[in-house]
Amino acid sequence: MVVYEPAQGLITDVFPCEDGHAQERALLGSVLASVQRNDLWIADRNFCTRAFLTEIDARGGFFVIREHQGLPWEMVSPLRSGGRTPTGQLAQQRVCVVDAQGHQHLFRRLQIKLDQVTRDGDMFLSILTNLPEQVSAQHVAQLYQNRWKLETAFQHLEAYFHSEINTLGYPKAALFGFCLALVAYNVLAVVLAALRGVHGEDTVDHTVSLYYIATEISATYKGMMIAIPEPEWEIFYAMNTADLAAILLDLAQRVSLQAFRKSSRTPKKPSPQGKKAPKKGHVSTAKLLMNRKANSATP
Q: Which domain range does residue 209 map to?
């Protein structure tokens, strides 16, 4: 499970688990231990549990999480119109959720009647939050929409950093490889931030190819480490953030974005609807290894 900071574009935490069949909710206890006061946690409905919401609230944090149908709550006030969002008509109400100790927590519940149904066929989207009333319902809805930046980050990890390497079958090796990909992703995020600071956010986001940037980094690294002796890099280890940022901005001014410009693409042709291959079941390597150990230990 990965924690992503949309404002910084960085992955700031990861909660690894060897069992590929483990449910995300099994890791929520570890996530809650990291919650700090005034944090804002944005997540999909799989994280909408009574314990997760009320514990964030009790710790002084905030959340914007899509409602899960199984969450028990009591209505405090009826739905009232809250204007529109870019995706539909908005309404909100107050609800109460009681934690395991019997303490009541008052939350806002937003309901968006979508102009277009989701890919799952949902016509309504409900969001729960404990943000104060000063944060408008439209702003809350926009915050949840930004959650998809995490999905984009995972797409980049898989496409450019090969975060899912088939040959790494052992769970610890696979997790290690994945975490190295996270570190590489953060390096790319810092490079892009420096480019945005010099060339402008819109220019970098719309014209620069992440594929070409990642390819340049991977292709140049080995030669650069040979050409520049290791002691020459030590100055960067002790450098403070402000000085490092100034150097990165200076280097970014010398980058020609033309070399990393996205290629123009023609509209995709619809794929032919042929016979689909049967899906193969997903196997948890961690469980297979655990069963093998148990069998070998049997007298």
A: 150-260
| C-alpha to C-alpha distance for 156 and 189, rounded to whole angstroms | 11
Q: Give the CA distances from residue 105 to residues 14, 66, 68, 97, in Å, rounded to whole numbers and listed in that order.
A: 28, 17, 17, 5
How does pLDDT run across 135-174, given as a tens digit for each residue? 999 999 989 887 776 666 667 667 666 656 666 668 888 8
DSSP 115-170: SS--TT--SEEEEEE---TTS-HHHHHHHHHTTHHHHHHHHHHHHHH--S-TT--S
221 located within any domain: yes
Q: Residues 159, 80: one domain?
A: no
Mean pLDDT, the chain, whole residue set:
86
Give how many domains the chain has, as a whole number: 2
Same domain membership, residue 131 and residue 154: no
Report field, pTM of the whole predicted structure over 0.70: yes
> Is position 15 within any domain?
no
